[in-house]
Specification:
Elements (H helix, E strand, L loop, with lengths): L10 H7 L12 H72 L3 H38 L3 H76 L3 H192 L2 E7 L16 E3 L6 E6 L2 E6 L2 E3 L5 H14 L6 E7 L5 H5 L8 H15 L4 E13 L2 E4 L8 E2 L2 E2 L7 E2 L6 E3 L2 H18 L3 H6 L2 E12 L5 E10 L13 H25 L11 H5 L1 H4 L4 E8 L6 H16 L4 H4 L9 H6 L19 H9 L12
This protein binds adenosine-5'-diphosphate and magnesium ion (MG).
Length: 803
Amino acid sequence: MPAARPGRELPLQRGRFCSGKRASLPAQRPFPVIQKVVASMAHLQEEKLRLQEEVLALQEKLAARESEEIAVSVQLRGQVENLKVNLREQAQEIGRLRSEMGGTDAEKHRDLLVAENERLRQEMKAHEGELRELRRQQAACQDCTHLQENAGLQERLCQLQREAEEARVKLVELELEVQQKTNRLAEVELRLKDSLAERAQEEERLSRRLRDSQETIASLRAQPQQIKYIIKTVEVESAKAKQALCESQSRNQYLQEQVGMQRQVLKEMEQQLQSSQKTAAQLRAQIAMYELELERAHGQMLEEMQVMEDEKNRAIEEAFSRAQVEMKAVHENLAGVRTNLLTLQPALRTLTHDYNSLKRQVRDFPLLLQETLRSARAEIGQAIEEVNSTNRELLRKYRRELQLRKKCHNELVRLKGNIRVFGRVRPITKEDGEGPEAVSAVTFDADDDAVLHLLHKGKQVSFELDKVFPPQASQEEVFQEVQALVTSCIDGYNVCIFAYGQTGAGKTYTMEGTSTNPGINQRALQLLFSEVQSKAADWDYAISVSVAEIYNEALRDLLGKEPQEKLEIKLCPDGSGQLYVPGLTEFSVQSVEDINKVFEFGHVNRVTECTNLNEHSSRSHALLIVTVRGLDRSTGLRTTGKLNLVDLAGSERVGRSGAEGSRLREAQYINRSLSALGDVIYALRSRQGHVPFRNSKLTYLLQDSLSGDSKTLMMVQVSPAEKNSSETLCSLKFAERVRSVELGPVSRKAELVSWPSQEQLEGDLPGSSSRSHASSSPGLPSSRATSIRRKLQTSGKLRLVPV
Ligand code: ADP
Ligand code: MG
């Protein structure tokens, strides 16, 4: 029996491959199927191994059975041989007996034995044939493939069944045979008994005859010679008979032994038969078990095949339906493509036509291009020429417009007044102390942001300025009002912003501010940087700064190497009439960081130069001079604007408090310079022919920035505290006077007779007699100004003299 070849599946195993639960479609659930397949494979492998083992066991059993059969056949052959020998001996014996007794039973027995012998031979041949057949089947089985193994097994099983059947039949036959043999043996025994009986009778007869003979001999002995002779004859005969008897007895003995042997053989054969029957029963049980196993396997196989078939059908159906759907889609696509093709064909024709024409055009293109380029060049040249001439014209017009704009702007500024006066009231601070003295003496007009009222010595005095910032006004709000002035510096105007007021009124706060809340200085420079940046496309700008202070009419450079050195203001030697300060350091700045560095540097210099900064700063004028130089790249126009940011010395009346020595000198200098500034502003605002710039270092230094179409802003700082009301009054009067100078053709010719000194300002207190305001001027007073002016208590020391 061949072992199942490894690597190939038995049909049975293949059947099991899909057994169990219904297998899903691979496309839907690939992993469970693979797992199931793997599991089935493993199971099949086990099954295969088990079957192989079974087959091997069967082969072994078969071999054992074959060897048994061979042994049995050998034994049978030996028995047959023995029987043959026995038969031959018996035949001889019978022949001899027949010759002796002429018995026919022995002959019959012999015939039977011969026939038996013959039958046994036949049987043996049949067994041999069976063996051969089995071997042949084995050989045939070895060629079986895995696919045929099951069939082979089934076939073998059938064969085994057949063999078992045959063996059964044979067994029955053998049983019959044994029975027959037994019968025959019984007959033989009977016959032997008969022959023994006969012999006994014969012996009896012979012994009787012997006795008769002996009696006769004895009777005859009694008779002389004759009797002797007879006796001798009888003795002789008797000896002969005795010899024959002995022989017969020995033969009989021998035959009995033979029978005993035969019986032994028979017994052995019966035992063999029984063991054969037992083996046959075992084989039959095994065969039945195999049959059952095969039946079960077959059933399982059929079941699995059915499941597989079902799944196959289902998969085919699904694939078919899918294929149908896909086919449908493909058909639809095809139809779409066909229609597209049909519609595309004309388009293709048109495209081909277009392509051909394009090809022609491309061929002709270089020529066309050259021609076009030629004409284009000519056209472009012409256009450039035209553009150039238009440009020239535009430039001319632009310059004219620029002039016009400047003129208009100047006119506007002239009309508005290029000197503006703002008031800023600081909040009440801790320094103001507590009690009635620290109460605010300043109130504001809710409807007019240019008016403020001061309660002084129980009387309310009202002032009208260009703008009033209440204590809550932020640095940003203040700067918003001044930023137009700052930006005009970029356009080439000179600008001056002064912070005026008594010490502690907030001048430094407005101009410098704090690091977290900067004042006009830093904001102005930031604005300048951003404006310059926005104009960078057309303009190149350079911004530089100088920081100086005027103390006791001495000008010092706070950015210089020797800040204590006094600088002089000189006329430019080029004859332009311009002033300059030799040795004044000018730092070019690019960013706010640069500015901060410059301020820091200036501050350090100022600190090292004085023992008490607060006191010193309140008695000197601090100047930040920003110069903005611009170049219009398109026109080549150059502009220079100067922004002068001045933190003036304290305007308080120190001189009156009986100060002496340096303190008095300081006070006089301050007084003089502030009066000079007032004079200059007044002269400018009233368009006087002579402006007394030279009366102080400050006005002389700022001459350029105060005259012409320059713009000036006076930020008058006041403290609202009741205790400062006198100083506040003075400051506001100063502001009012500066502002109240009328503009216009008449005032242009007006002449400053005298500007009140600080002391005089103090004297102009409300309620004084002989007050007449400059509103008496024949200018163009506004109705609002007139109404306010009526309320004002002005000194009337200004005299406008028509030219
Ligand atoms: P000045 O320079 O006129 O002598 P300061 O600028 O030094 O006066 O101001 C004096 C004090 O008042 C400072 O502490 C300053 O911070 C404060 N101060 C001035 N103006 C304001 C304001 N608008 N808001 C808040 N505090 C102010
Ligand atoms: Mg100050």
